[in-house]
What we know:
Blueprint: H1 10-17, H2 21-28, H3 36-49, H4 55-62, E1 67-72, H5 76-79, H6 83-98, E2 102-107, H7 111-122, E3 128-132, H8 140-147, E4 151-154, E5 168-171, H9 173-186, E6 192-196, H10 202-214, E7 223-225, H11 230-243, E8 249-252, H12 255-267, E9 277-282, H13 287-290, E10 296-299, H14 302-318, E11 330-332, E12 335-337
Helix pairs in contact: 1-2, 1-3, 2-3, 6-14, 7-8, 9-10, 11-12
Amino acid sequence: MTETVPRPTLEAVAARAGVSRATVSRVVNGSDGVREPLAERVRQAVEELGYVPNQAARSLVTKRHDAVAVIVAEPETRVFADPFFARQLRGISKELTAHDNQLVLLLTEDRDDHARVGRYLAGGHVDGALVFSLHIDDPLPELIQRAGVPAVFGGRPDFNGGRGGVVYVDSDNRGGARDAVRHLIGLGRSRIAHITGALDQTSAVDRLDGYRDAVAGADPRLVVEGDFTSASGERAMRQLLDRRPGLDAVFAANDLMAAGALRVLRERGRRVPDDVAVVGFDDMLPIAEQTEPPLTTVRQDIEEMGRLMARLLLRTLDGTGEQDQAPGGLILPTTLIHRASA
């Protein structure tokens, strides 16, 4: 049988450092009031003994759990299949890890999941929440407010009546879409279709608005709703070709749908970009570089969005920033990336 080695205690660290238990506690919990020579002796003793603070006891002192809930309002089948979410989670994880915070991933698919997440937040297990991929009429914002948990949202929120007090990070979806369609117009294309994302999400609505900004009096038959998946891009492209076989360009609201559209165009014998030019949104590598032909698309810095979300929340928790300091949110610029599809 393997013997269990006793876990080092605060008392053991205090004895090794030659200081009181209270002094060790202040150093370990990051409190002020300990002279640097003493603090350095404590840190050395902690390292020598391999002391690990008891998180439950530490939380009683600091009122912090050093844990942040990351809530994605999508089912797991979507989250783990779409590289967009991996990028945003990577940005969030890097920032939280750099500040010694734990990421707690929570996914929601139905009303039971919302109730579970609400109970978890209200239970005081985390210091704050990062929320993205919200849908219109999603109950999460109300549950978060009721739990009293500080939160930062990914994407322009459609709740709270558009008033301030909601901190969020988003890309310039409308401006990026407008640039994409204007590029197609500049190529001489005049029958430009749009495959939207799910229109119960503000990113899809903003990209549709950008398309309409560029195409005055757009033919409604040239607009088909998708849901940000590759399969929906295929379905939408078939509908568009059946409705308007003479279309000469397509702007898809993300790269996955653009990739699906490209497959259907190839099946139907349409040459890209000769017959139909195609532009996507995201610049999701390696997808955009591996389509046939490589995809012209609008780049948004998804990983940076995640980092900024986490940074804003941590500043609020540390008391170095107020949640209403940027009531309009942070909007990151987008860039049109030229490849062979348009």
